Amino acid sequence: MGRYVVRRLLQMIPVFAGSTFLIFFMVYALGDPVAALFGDKAPDPAVAARIRQELYLDQPLWKQYLHYMGQVLTGDFGTAFTGQPVLELMADAFPVTIRLTIVAVLFEVVVGIALGVAGGLRRGRPADTTVLMLTLVVVSVPTFVSGYVLQYLFGVRWGLVPPTVPPEAAFAQLLLPGVVLGLVSLAYVTRLTRTSLVENARADYIRTAVAKGLPRHRVVLRHLLRNSLIPVVTFIGADVGALMGGAIVTERIFNIHGVGYQLYQGILRQNSPTVVGFVTVLVLVFLVANLVVDLLYAVLDPRIRHA
Amino acid sequence: MPEPTDRIPPEARDAVGSAAGGAAGLATREAESLEGGPVPGTARSAKARSLWTDAWHDLRRNPVFVLSALVIVFLLLIAVWPSLVAGGNPLQCDLAKSQEGPQAGHPFGFDAQGCDVFTRTVHGARASITVGVCATAGAALLGSVLGGLAGYYGGWWDAVLSRLADVFFGIPIILGGLVFLSVVTGRSVWPVVGFIVLLGWPQISRIARGAVVAAKQHDYVQAARALGAGDARLLLRHIAPNAVAPVIVVATIALGTYIALEATLSFIGVGLRPPTVSWGIDISNASTQIRNAPHMLLWPAGALSLTVLAFIMLGDAVRDALDPKLR
Amino acid sequence: MRGGVRTRAGRVAGAVLGLLLVVAVGGCGGGAGGRVPGVVRASWGDPQNPLEPANTNEVQGGKVLDLIFRGLKKYDPKTGAAVDMLAERIESKDAQNFTVKVRGGWTFSNGEAVTARSFVDAWNYAALADNKQRNASFFAYIDGYEKVHPESGAATAKTLSGLALKDDRTFTVKLRTKFSTWPGTLGYPAFAPLPRAFFEDHDGWLKKPVGNGPYAIDSYTRGSAMRLSRWDGYPGPDKAENNGVELRVYTDSNTAYADLQAGNIDLVDDIPSTQLRNVRKDLDGRYINQPAGIIQTLVFPLYDAQWNRPGAEKVRRGLSMAINRGQITSQIYRDTRTPATDWTSPVLGEKGGYKAGLCGAACTYDPAAARRLIREGGGLPGGRVTVTSNVDTGSHRVWMDAVCNSINNVLGDDRACTVNPVGTFADFRSRIAQQAMSGMFRSGWQMDYPLIQNFLQPQFGTNASSNYGKFSDARFDGLVDRANAESDTAAAVATFQEAERILAERMPAVPLWYQNGNAGYAAGLSDVALNQFSVPVYERIKVK
């Protein structure tokens, strides 16, 4: 068990190297960022040349990468074009986005599983159909629309919450954005829970539990739900990282200066230190989230062992 | 009356008790029946039918399946011959009619450029359904094969495949789109499909891996293995049917999100291009106009919903048909 | 055994989750708080570059410079005329050698006096290539620029030889060539004076810039907000009418607009185009829509022989006539753009060189004439034309589609014109720089200073810095040179307009529309206006 965890943590090293290089290469492939620094005006050749030199952009790709990695190993993640160190951007952006993700994940876990159970236990009945329709709406209406409509209704029309999130972005202020961010994942969690529940409801151990005369809620919670959660947990584990990096639209609508925003800016401005720094941290988040998921498998199903 | 089956009937398993206990007893019976021995019961067919033919037999009688299949056939028909339903030209636009509501001859109104929403919705089916169905099929196939192998073999296989998935998962869609798709100059849907498969498979592979990890612990699998069933047989006949449900669920919802993803790619200039018409592009154009012209969103989003609904129902029916416990 | 695994696994998972929570919660801090009386809360965007005056080339950084700096000249927000601010007088006998006398009694907000040296040092800093200032080229007119800023290689001088300090309040400027309207360029923020602190503690200055304008910066949290308060010691005539300005960073104008409707912010200077249909109703008329010094054009790649063969100018003119500008600006932009009929901007005024209708028939929608001209000119190259622009900013896709639809409707061919969206601005700029365009491409020109020269020479002069289509016309160049040497402003303007008529003939770029600035504001504000750079005139805003 301990060795399993250590081995998984050691796997982070090659993944770190691989993903930094891949992302570095991809940003490099986007082309010359210096051309865009002068707005609609033609770049000043002397200034452009000096900026390229300063950013190591006049070097071949492998030298650029080695230079960057050398910096990273000394704790310097480079600077964005605004002159701000990337480390500072990360220190500002990640806490906000982690809080937003926690809200979104809690929302999809609590509401998603509840709806999934409601639908799964009443298969084919109105409750089930309603949940299915909700899924369809969530899948086919873009986040931009749902976010904008909810912001307009709650923030502007009814004035229940401020339409935007202030810079300190406390948990309470992130409720609405968290819900918007979690909507699409909610559809997945709901459907997965429902299907898994329907499938396991016929399993032998449930029949046994019922036959033993256990109360219904105990059967549902202790036996049925617990064994149905593996796909749900897998999905959420994968989703944590996706939510953190993919909140571009939600962060924009609610004016949250988080990871999605910085990443988006970094990509559009082709600033490799920003993009590589943020993506690398995200990949590490995926790794940790996956490890947690794998450990949870053993909790949910005692037959699964990790060697 | 349960259908004749080459798998163990549920009541037989009940008799053995819970999955946790009595593994030995169950194992023999399960393995016996799974290895294709004739099972006592109505022997309508002398030949033992495979799991898959059996499922097909079930499906044909399932009204949910029939209905969803009809809807899908209808959508495919529109995709192939859009002019059957909408004779107009989706590229014929009159800006003077920008965002006007429904009127005679134009039941769905006009979009911001003054194009007829009905014609565009019908003509958008081809690109959107191609992207949705092909990307989903590709990602589901690649994801479940790689995820399944990782879950089944564990160890090095698992480490390499899962970490590879992590790295791919980490590529931001916008960055990937700009890098991979901007080098493609053509305007066909296939680069977009390929790209979505490339970034979509890790999610499905995670789900498949988790499901296989859980399924391979089941006693009947252990038993079949003890009886000498090969890896391929174990995976295909014993594990896959029990692990396929979550993959189907995720894939059917992903179908909808992939169609929407195409819009994101088109929005950043690397997706489909005119004269190609798609729901995704129209939804994304409409979504900024939601306060002034909600009809622009309603129809393409409705068409997308119908498609997703049909595939979710189809997926549900297929899953039921494959589930041995529902018999 | 199993139980052990379970609880241990659970514990590890719990510990990791706990760690994440701590990281998340630990990030709390700061506090935006409510509103301070008399302070204008205004929308802002994150400046793209460090906030040095000569390094700021976009409007968001420009807002801050406008608040905290005053230069020799300032453009009157209403008329656009360059009026003396710190300049007591700027004199020249030959349109090439200028003597600048700086007004006394001005200080920076840290108490340091503004002297002639404050300007000379700042300008030398801006021009020196090693300082990598984006706007260094503004100083290219000054003698000695090629020494401090050679196109390649190291600088051979540290200071501009054309700048000389005479006394505490006087310096002289020698230009490389005659440029009679040069003093009119000095209202641009790049020409601002800089305090010693800028050179002595550069990092510290960047964290909290100090200037000589009507406001002083209280605090600056990068990426989220800047607070400025009125500087009571400000000696200038345009003292702030409010207690301060709080600039808040918004990443999307729709969001800022929602905050304005909800009363969380007082001033939004970029109303999203999607709200234009309802903005007057939403804001009860508290909405401004006025011209700004921006013109959007579609440039032809004249370096491509297909677009430059004999007769191609007919095709170019025909395409211009196939674009229904009036319909696009009203249906898509709700009149926040005005169809362009020359290559300048209405903010110049008649005297400054704007002349409505100068382009004549070539910029008027006329389907029949457009078809005829394109046919006579030999048709579109290969029967096709593309419209290229970046689509990552400015929602360009909408007008690109509309322009193509308009051309296609005129030509009766669905596929004659197609849009060619480019994912990033940098990629778009690179393609322009590499001369890789094969069809029309967008060029947005935001004036640096309200002079007709600034619209014509950099964009259409042979080998000029922003002449992306590589247009070249000896008559045009000759007229521009003559206009620059003209010491009488009216005569100079007339000569520039004569040059502009050549553009109407040869159509190197299709003028699409003049862009307006627009803004919405809260009920508590009055006297809200935008200047011709579409920046709000903050100091004149009154707060109830």
If you had to describe this structure to a student in words, what would you say it looks like?
The complex is a heterotrimer of chains A (307), B (327) and C (544). Helices cover 74% and strands 0% of the residues of chain A. Chain A contains 13 helices and no strands. The model of chain A has no long low-confidence stretch (mean pLDDT 87). Mean pLDDT of chain B is 80; it is low at 1-47. By secondary structure, chain C is α+β, with helices and mostly antiparallel strands. In chain C, helix 10 packs antiparallel against helix 13 (367-376). The longest helix of chain C has 25 residues, at 2-26. Chain C starts with a helix and ends with a strand.
CATH architecture of the largest domain in chain B: Orthogonal Bundle
Number of strands of chain B: 0
The largest sheet of chain B is: none
CATH homologous superfamily identity of the largest domain in chain B: MetI-like
Number of β-strand runs of chain C: 19
Q: What is the number of helical segments of chain B per DSSP (H or I, 4+ residues)?
A: 12
CATH-defined fold name of the largest domain in chain B: MetI-like fold
Main beta sheet of chain C: strand number and arrangement?
7 strands, mixed
Give the structural class of chain C. alpha+beta
Tell me the series of helices and strands of chain B, N- to C-terminal: HHHHHHHHHHHH
State the shape of chain B: globular
Estimated share of beta-strand residues of chain C: 15-25%
Keywords (chain B): Cell membrane, Membrane, Transmembrane, Transmembrane helix, Transport
Protein name (chain B): Peptide ABC transporter permease
Subcellular location (chain B): Cell membrane
Organism (chain B): Streptomyces caatingaensis
